[in-house]
Amino acid sequence: MTEPARGPSEAGSGVEPPIAPHVRERFALLERFAPGEGARWAAELWCTPPAVEMSLRMPPGVPPSRPIEAAWDGNRVIGESWGEGDPVYLVHGWGGCQAHLGVFVKPLVEAGYRVIAFDLPSHNGSDPGAMAPGRTTIVECAKAVHAVVDEFGPAHAILGHSLGAKATALAVSWGAAAQRLVFLAPMGDFSWYLDVFTQRHGFGPRIRDGLHRRLDQKLGMPLFDTDIAAVADRPDNPPLLVIHDPDDPDSPYGFSEQIVTAWPNALLHTTKGLGRLAHYRILRHRPALDAAVAFIAS
């Protein structure tokens, strides 16, 4: 089993821009002289989805869609629907959009499912939650997943990428009904991302600890309780297929191995050689697509 990297790391595929030097310099000063202010600023940045440089348009061959809408706590979630049959939900990752999972639409419709894709809170057309526009949290994303499933019916399957996998696991632990789950490059434990975020932004343990406390408060629950690992061993969890590439620098492959070990009735499908952009290339990788569709339709 691969042990996930735990120490600070300049992890990232290059899809997100590097942190500007003046930001790192300011955080270094705040670490020394005003860690509380630094933690407040860090929490705002943590809750701001990045602008991922990928197309917002559905890939060629996707049939015409119908608009859909759901609501959680009075906030709208918007998306699209294709086909008829038992619903299969597509949940994009942090900074993503529904189009990022577009290659799954056509084969799932042809397999006889109604496919529903939507934008998470503060992503593209969906409303923000309790925070300012352009910001959201893992708890709000999980609430949105739960709301869409409640609105359009129990899932034959939910397919989630990266943070979308984490939000899906949390929503299912809260009672969102699903017969099967597929996680593509699921986001690992937040403890690792806190270390990476700390290193990238150039602050130290005082701001990191304050950031952690602020996130616990914003979520209304401990940040680490939202990890997939925290809900993986529930005996009523549905069957799970995890698809991941060891090259992925954004979500360590070792976390997927741990998830599959802890999750009852889980399988790991390993892709190979997707390189530094593996976290996003997996969304267009034919073997990953075929494995996901076969698992959903089996």
UniProtKB/TrEMBL annotation:
<keyword id="KW-0378">Hydrolase</keyword>
<dbReference type="GO" id="GO:0016787">
    <property type="term" value="F:hydrolase activity"/>
</dbReference>
<feature type="domain" description="AB hydrolase-1">
    <location>
        <begin position="88"/>
        <end position="268"/>
    </location>
</feature>
<dbReference type="InterPro" id="IPR050266">
    <property type="entry name" value="AB_hydrolase_sf"/>
</dbReference>
<dbReference type="InterPro" id="IPR000073">
    <property type="entry name" value="AB_hydrolase_1"/>
</dbReference>
<dbReference type="InterPro" id="IPR029058">
    <property type="entry name" value="AB_hydrolase_fold"/>
</dbReference>
<dbReference type="Pfam" id="PF12697">
    <property type="entry name" value="Abhydrolase_6"/>
</dbReference>
<protein>
    <submittedName>
        <fullName>Alpha/beta hydrolase</fullName>
    </submittedName>
</protein>
<dbReference type="GO" id="GO:0016020">
    <property type="term" value="C:membrane"/>
</dbReference>
